[in-house]
Design a protein that fits this description.
Elements: H1 4-16, H2 21-24, H3 30-46, H4 81-88, H5 93-100, H6 110-116, H7 122-133, H8 137-142, H9 144-150, H10 157-169, H11 172-176, H12 184-196, H13 202-211, H14 215-228, H15 234-245, H16 250-262, H17 278-289, H18 295-302, H19 312-319, H20 325-329, H21 337-350, H22 355-358, H23 367-377, H24 386-391, H25 399-412
Helix pairs in contact: 1-3, 3-9, 4-5, 5-7, 6-7, 9-10, 12-14, 13-14, 13-15, 14-16, 15-16, 16-17, 18-19, 19-21, 21-23, 23-25
Length: 419
């Protein structure tokens, strides 16, 4: 299987043989161009014969010799794209600069012009930036992933600023066309610009927040969707909030719960008091408090039937008082594993963890319960008898119990002997 380095080297070989850039490498992949830029300089040292073949780049036209005191660029007629691509990556800045003079109206070489904008040699960078400034915005947008990668370099901000300005000032479809880009940085920039320009309806923003794979895009769209509430009717508000509340992502659900206040639907936050996410539970409590509802009594009543609301114990610990500790402690023996896990979390939130009460749960068959118990006991690991922890390391123990023992032994500074 070829590595990316191997592919870059093969692309150099093909270019040296005169193959056009769009056939010599994957022109749609920004990493291919970045890899090419490095591979040309590497192979020029290791395999200089590639660049003196009669098929393409000859010593009479472009000097690659390591011992040449002054590199020369003596093109006879109009150089081809393959030859220019190699010259744009040459180790000598004077050759890179000379090659840039031939790149106008050569869209196939625009990616290398973008890379040269961040060139360490000032004359090369300046010439590349002047060329890029005259590039039509739609061509810039087509190379957004590469521009944003180069933008992370110390001299790469010019191309990124040029692209961002083009998206902000250009036709709306120029920005919206990049929303579904498979490149993460491109999708983020496109959504930022589209939100700034108010190009997306709030309902679409909410649906994107609920379903997009990237957390930054989720946050951008969720915040923008919530900010749009209050500008339309109640029914429109419901269309915005519903996708947020239905999201599998806690951050997006929390935005939806927060939006209930703006939609004047405070009571609808009550079911989210027992959400599996602590962030969502906190938002639900905040919404209810805005209309004077104290969530602690609600949690106490929900703990009466904890199997129906497992996270109620955790929520009570997050907002209750120490007088609620015994109520939560009784749930440590509940037959439902999720209730036991949330009960440990509730005691931890109240800072009412008693080692002797919680330690038996290290033997729990549920991995979730043992993970939560381990987290609660880590500050008190030195109070757990080491023989108890070493028993959990036995080969016949479930993996989650052995992992818990290792973590707790390490917390005490003891060495865990296990197979």
């Amino acid at each position: 299987m070829l590595t990316s380095e191997d592919e870059s080297h093969e692309a150099v070989v093909r270019l040296a043989a005169g193959v056009a850039p769009d056939q010599a490498l994957d022109a749609t992949n920004p990493e291919s161009w970045i890899g090419l830029d490095c591979a040309v300089r590497e192979l020029a040292w290791r395999r200089p014969e590639l660049f003196h073949s009669k098929a393409s780049l000859s010593g009479r036209r472009l000097s690659w010799g390591a011992g040449a005191s002054l590199p020369t660029v003596n093109w006879r007629g109009k150089p081809g794209d393959a030859e220019l691509a190699l010259a744009l990556c040459h180790r000598d800045g004077r050759i890179r600069e000379a090659a840039l003079a031939h790149t106008e109206e050569r869209p196939a070489l625009l990616p290398l012009v973008v890379i040269r904008c961040a060139d360490w040699a000032q004359p090369v960078g300046e010439r590349a930036r002047a060329l890029l400034a005259d590039t039509p915005p739609q061509r810039l947008a087509a190379h957004a992933p590469l521009i944003l990668r180069v933008g992370h370099r110390s001299r790469g901000g010019f191309a990124q600023d040029l692209l961002t300005g083009a998206l902000r000032a250009g036709p709306p479809e120029q920005a919206t066309a990049l929303l579904d880009s498979g490149d993460r940085a491109t999708a983020r920039l496109a959504h930022r610009v589209a939100i700034e320009r108010r190009l997306l309806p709030a309902v679409r923003l909410a649906r994107t927040a609920a379903g997009h794979r990237d957390v930054v895009v989720q946050d951008l769209c969720a915040d923008a969707a919530v900010a749009a509430l209050g500008e339309g009717s109640f029914d429109e508000g419901a269309e915005i909030v519903a996708p947020l509340l239905a999201s599998r992502q806690p951050r997006v659900r929390s935005a939806g719960v927060t939006a209930l206040r703006r939609a004047a639907r405070h009571a609808d936050a009550e079911p989210y008091l027992t959400d599996r996410s602590a962030v969502v539970r906190a938002c639900a409590r905040w919404v209810l408090r805005q209309v004077g509802t104290d969530p602690a009594p609600l949690y106490r009543s929900l703990c009466v039937d904890p199997a129906s609301h497992p996270a109620a114990a955790a929520g009570l610990g997050e907002c209750g008082g120490r007088e609620d500790a015994d109520r939560i402690r009784t749930l440590l023996a509940h037959p439902v594993a999720r209730v036991r896990a949330y009960a440990v979390a509730g005691l931890q939130a109240l800072q009412e963890v008693r080692v002797d009460d919680v330690r038996p749960l290290l033997d729990d068959p549920s991995a979730a319960v043992v993970r939560q118990t381990t987290a609660a006991l880590l500050p008190w690991a030195d109070r757990i008898p080491q023989e108890v922890l070493h028993e959990l390391l036995a080969e016949d123990r479930p993996r989650h119990q052995r992992v818990a023992a290792i973590r707790l032994l390490r917390a005490t500074g003891a060495q865990a002997h296990h197979s």
